[in-house]
């Protein structure tokens, strides 16, 4: 048994904690999978590299209305895939090598294997070969992330399916892809594969795609997706079977009765579960909530002194910018235990990089109503601003919610080109308490750029005083 000052479980956001300020601490870092975690290897980074490629591939389909006749003559899947992972895999390998071998990390030992608590502040690490090593520490950082949920569907395991962990490394592009689910992963991969020429069928249990977005945004997205893909709403997948010709028949049940969807590959995208079950935090006295999330306080500390948790393991947001923020908080609190700081989860934004993009921050209109928060709504359409005309966009819009008395923004919801970028000034205004009128009129807005969408929505807010 080896004792450490600090043990970090998970090399996603957890790996970013260690720097020269920890050089005096005898430290271990434990990883069961690929060094670098979800965002780098199977999450944000590769998906967005595929999304940009999809945007490029989709361009010819929209170019004729500008008087430009373009044709997509083919996509080279192997080249697309290998460009993405040719860039990413060396970064993961380099990160692992840096921790294992570089002089900067003389104080760090990397353990390959799954960490599981076996007693208070005692972790047993089981390697792929089944060998176990027991380590103890004064302090722990639990950054073990989450993994895709696979719902029980009779026959699905035998038929074979992909998750976001594997679908980006497909050997070849399928002609038809069935996606079970209707959230972030479903929307992004529907755009990616459809733009590359794959027939996409989205099988959603709910009546709306992206149903956690503001309802107006989710409704607009559902309408646009229905025009672009084969969308089956209110369909529960109840069976799967791989046929002799290699296709997979998915049986679904909807209010209209049983139905069948025949595809070549299946992507399961129904959410992610925290990896707390692998860690058994209870064995060290750390509490887990009913959704499997490790419970932390505002300092990211669990109920056990010196054990911190961050990211998808403990956060309901499951977003990389949140995991990064929490990792910085944990880093500070490890370095300055007598002067701890708190995480700031007041205004957490999110973006779906599908087609079109969606970006949001703060309350939806439905949440504001439920919580009885006073609000007014200001809207603007891409079709109402000059750059929106340039893009011939007729479907995108911004919807802002503000407190009518103070003018402070309480929510923002965008659907349309570059929504993830255009939202940023709103996040800034909310974070720093800038009211809508000052934001709209206290600065220049570059004309005729896309952020004029926000300027117009701000000016359209029916505030008590403006
Ligand atoms: C397809 C996809 C696209 C995404 N796109 C975006 C995006 O565009 N923007 C965004 O903000 N977020 C995105 N996310 C979410 C984002 O990737 C995660 O929120 C973030 O990576 C979580 O970081 P983490 O450090 O908490 O966990 P992870 O990065 O998952 O790190 C956890 C690590 O711990 C290891 N581990 C787990 N259990 C153990 C154990 N018991 N012992 C040892 N090691 C263990 C795992 O192998 C893993 O490497 C996406 C996610 C997916 C799946
Ligand atoms: N751009 C981004 O920031 C980004 C991109 C991808 C993933 N992510 C993160 O990863 C997480 C996981 O993404 P996701 O799309 O898998 O989950 P999600 O939570 O976004 O959506 C899952 C959807 O599947 C539905 N569902 C649940 N069980 C089902 C079942 N048995 N059959 C059919 N549908 C079912 C849910 O109702 C929900 O609408 C997200 O919560 C997000 O935080 C972020």
Automatic annotation (TrEMBL):
One term of GO molecular function: flavin adenine dinucleotide binding
PROSITE patterns cross-referenced by the UniProt entry: PYRIDINE_REDOX_1
Keyword Protein biosynthesis: no
Co-factor note (free text): Binds 1 FAD per subunit.
Residues bound to FAD: 48, 115, 312
Active site residues per record: 447 (proton acceptor)
Domain (FAD/NAD(P)-binding) ranges: 4-327
InterPro entries to which the protein is assigned, alphabetical: FAD/NAD-bd_sf, FAD/NAD-binding_dom, FAD/NAD-linked_Rdtase_dimer_sf, Pyr_nuc-diS_OxRdtase, Pyr_nucl-diS_OxRdtase_dimer, Pyr_OxRdtase_I_AS
Family statement: Belongs to the class-I pyridine nucleotide-disulfide oxidoreductase family.
NCBIfam families assigned to the protein according to its UniProt record, in alphabetical order: PRK07846.1 (NF005884)
Protein name per its UniProtKB record: Pyridine nucleotide-disulphide oxidoreductase dimerization region
Organism field: Kribbella flavida (strain DSM 17836 / JCM 10339 / NBRC 14399)
Native organism taxonomy: Bacteria, Bacillati, Actinomycetota, Actinomycetes, Propionibacteriales
